[in-house]
Each structure stands twice: as C-alpha cells, then as structure tokens.
Design brief:
GO molecular function, one term: DNA-binding transcription factor activity
InterPro entries: DNA-bd_dom_put_sf, MerR-type_HTH_dom, MerR_fam, Tscrpt_reg_MerR_DNA-bd
Shape: elongated
Keywords: Coiled coil, DNA-binding, Transcription, Transcription regulation
Organism: Methylobacterium durans
Helix content: 55-70%
Order of helices and strands: HHHHHH
Structural class: mainly alpha
Pfam family, one: MerR-DNA-bind
Radius of gyration: 25 Å
Number of strands: 0
CATH class of one domain: Mainly Alpha
C-alpha cells in the first residue's frame, strides 16, 4: 500500500476528512508534510486513524485514546496497563448504566402516574418536574393537588 491523499486515507480508515483534520488538531496524529503539493498519508498513519476510531467506538475518550497510543508506542509497556485501562472503562460504563436505569425508573414512575388525557393543568408529569427539589424519582403524581380539584 502506498501513501494516500487525505480523502483516500479517510475512506480507507472509515472516517471523514474533517475527522482526520480534527485528530491532527488534537495531536492524535501528526499532520504529514506536503510532498508534491499536497499532504500524503502513510499506511501506518491510516492504521493509527483506524485505531483511534475503534477506541472511540468502544467508549474511550480522546484523552484515554492518547494514553493507549502512548502505551502502544512504548516497547517497555505491559499489556497489564492496557487491561487496567479497559477495566476502568468497564467500571465507568457500569456506573453510567446504573444512572440510566435510575433515570428510566423515574421516567416510568411519572409516566405510570399520568392519566394520558386532559388539559396540561392536570399533567402529572409536568407537575412532577416542577416538584424537582424532592430529588429524582420522587413523584407525588398520585397525591391530590393542593387547591386544585382533580
């Protein structure tokens, strides 16, 4: 495989041209030197772009991806370091899943209490959102309103 233009490199790596430019600005890849009037991207650079994209797909941030790239380039690095980073990412994902499950439960509670009809003045979902100081997931949707007949 020979060097490619940015458009060819982007297509081969499965990203857009602007993604490559973004990676250059962020310091994830070096901007190639102009050769014959335009920049060319080596097969190794295209492989690096694919690596970055795949790391993003599985949830690594750009900073974390930079750390993985540094480990990858360090001949003294150990696979255990990469594994530790991946395990840390799994813990973060588990935390996000827990939070999303809490959000889902809160939404299910307010939706279940909603009669699904009537004017907005009787909307228990909007009322629950207005009563937010009690914290997420706490809804008094089934309680009678003060001063307003149901």
């Amino acid at each position: 495989m020979r060097d490619q233009t940015i458009g060819q490199a982007a297509q081969d790596a499965g990203v857009g041209v602007e993604t490559i430019r973004f990676y250059e600005r962020e310091g994830l890849i070096e901007q190639p030197i102009k050769g014959t009037g335009y920049r060319t991207y080596s097969p190794e650079l295209v492989t690096r772009i694919r690596f970055i994209r795949q790391a993003q797909r599985i949830g690594f941030s750009l900073k974390e991806t930079q750390e993985l790239l540094a480990l990858r380039a360090n001949p003294a690095a150990d696979c255990a370091e990469v594994r530790a980073q991946a395990q840390h990412k799994i813990a973060e994902v588990d935390e996000k899943i827990s939070e999303l499950l809490r959000v889902r439960a809160a939404l299910e509670a307010v939706v279940a209490s909603c009669p699904g009809r009537g004017g907005l003045e009787d909307c228990t979902i909007l009322e629950a959102l207005e009563d937010a100081p009690r914290g997420p997931g706490t809804c008094r949707c089934d309680e009678p309103r003060k001063g307003k007949p149901r």
